[in-house]
Amino acid sequence: MTSLTSLVENSHRTCPTMYSTLLLGHRGARGERLENSREGFVHTHHLSRHSQGRLVGIEFDVQLTQDGKLVVFHDDTMLRLFSKQSRIDQCTVAEIQRLSGGAIMLLEDMPEVLTGYCHIELEVKTHNRTHYAKLIQALKQCLSQSTFEQLPITLTSFDVQLHYYLQADCLLSTFNRGLLVEPISSQSNPALMSTGHGQLLSYTIDTALRLQCNAVGLYHPLFNESFVKECQRYGLSTTAWTVNDSDYAKYLIKLGVNYLITDYPSVFLNNEILSIR
């Protein structure tokens, strides 16, 4: 069996330029393998190596455990994936590993499945119980390790408060950072709930620039031509999530969106959707 080390050593190391829009696997490839799992990350890496430069990276989530570690997991609780009511922030790593049967990875163990990509979106999850000082310390402890130095990581979050902490930190501010934006109906910010679509997009660009972000990531129906052009004007990279419909993918490609995050990278690669201009 091919080892994981040899698998990643032979993968592409520079971003290709033959496609104007590039593909990222969502939580690895959550429509094809268990999301945010080692199996899913290895699967996506294999696809990437044979994608002729179309699948260039992945997106995944991290959050803080009770004992101050960062685990690669999306939900607040283990209910949806493992039928356990346990909340991630109330469990230790040992408890999480036991309840998940060892399926959940730690951020510190991720480099072996990330080597060779040219774009990685690491979403930092927060909630109303988040202890920001502990979260920042955990991020610094992991990302200061030499195994992360050469990885093209963009730190992303919906949480503007977290972005302020990232911007103020000497280490974390050196990473590319991306502001994530969800539909107005999902906004937890009361000020934004009263805004229209156009105001939301204007707010997104203004906020991203104020936070010195390099990128913005939007729920894919929020994109329009004027927004993409404004992002290009200010040098902001654009990512659309989560794109599983081929017709909508073609529309976003024509708009000039830089990255599409999808649950089904195999489908997009087999249909050669990214060849559309």
How would you characterize the overall build of this protein?
With 277 residues, the chain is α/β, with parallel strands linked by helices. It has 11 helices and 9 strands. Strands 1-2-4-5-6-7-8-9 form an 8-stranded parallel beta barrel, surrounded by 5 helices. The protein is globular. The protein starts with a helix and ends in a 7-residue tail after the last helix.
Describe the structure using short key phrases:
alpha/beta, disordered N terminus, eight-stranded parallel barrel
Write the layout of secondary structure elements.
Layout: H1 4-9, E1 22-26, H2 38-49, E2 55-64, E3 70-71, H3 79-82, H4 93-99, E4 119-124, H5 132-143, E5 153-157, H6 160-168, E6 176-181, H7 190-193, H8 197-210, E7 215-219, H9 225-233, E8 237-241, H10 246-255, E9 259-262, H11 265-270
